[in-house]
Amino acid sequence: MSNYYNAFEVSPVPAPGPDAVAPEPFRGIYGMPSFVTIPTTDLAASVEFWTRGLDFFELFSVPDQLVHLRRWAFQDVLLVPAVSVPDQVPVVSVSFACVMSQIDAVVAACRACNMGVVSEPRDTPWGTLDVEVITPENARVVFTAAKPFDPASQAAKNLEAIGITAPDTDREKNGARA
């Protein structure tokens, strides 16, 4: 028996598919289970890029100290003033879930901002479509959209090779979960 089970009901991420609809921006206040803090030398320019290019909205701000941005529930970014930002892009990245229809829009919006660097979308071996953005603060941000699950796909075989099986198979192998 595996310790894994379907827990999609706790996530704002919709089921994958070409017609998946992104959830509405979440404006509620909650204890953030995780967030990313991005230092910036220009708060206003950073807010402009993150809101216009990456589709975040300003939840609140403390003038000259902090801007709290959000997209969906649990996708929180804190922009904070800094004297400098790293000269080099870090190896580590932060990823945000999106739906497939948002990938091209993020690419176009980031390019229209003319402030960051955006890659071409790419397919991953685990069944997502990703786009990488290097922000003006030199943060590496990945937008990742799950593709519909095809049990016959190479992505499904890759997942099965590490013990992650299709949902119907999981139910049979692992028993139903409440």
Tell how many strands the DSSP assignment holds: 9
Low-confidence regions = 169-178
Mean pLDDT: 89
**Count of helical stretches:** 4
Percent of residues in beta strands:
25-35%
What does the main sheet amount to?
Answer: 5 strands, mixed
Helices and strands, in order, run as EHEEEEHEEEEHH
* Envelope shape: globular
- What integer value in Å does the Rg equal? 18 Å
Report how far apart the termini are. Answer: 15 Å
Give the class from helix and strand content and strand pairing.
alpha+beta
Give the helix proportion (percent range): 10-25%
Task: Give short descriptive properties of this protein.
five-stranded mixed beta sheet, alpha+beta, 23% helix, four-stranded mixed beta sheet, globular, 178 residues
Description:
It is a single chain. It is built from 4 helices and 9 strands. It has helices at 43-53, 100-113, 154-161, 167-174, and strands at residues 36-40, 57-62, 66-70, 76-81, 94-98, 117-118, 122-123, 128-134, 140-146. Strands 5, 6, 7, 8 and 9 form a 5-stranded mixed sheet that branches. It has a 4-stranded mixed sheet with strand order 1-4-3-2, covered by helices on one side. Residues 169-178 have low confidence and may be disordered.
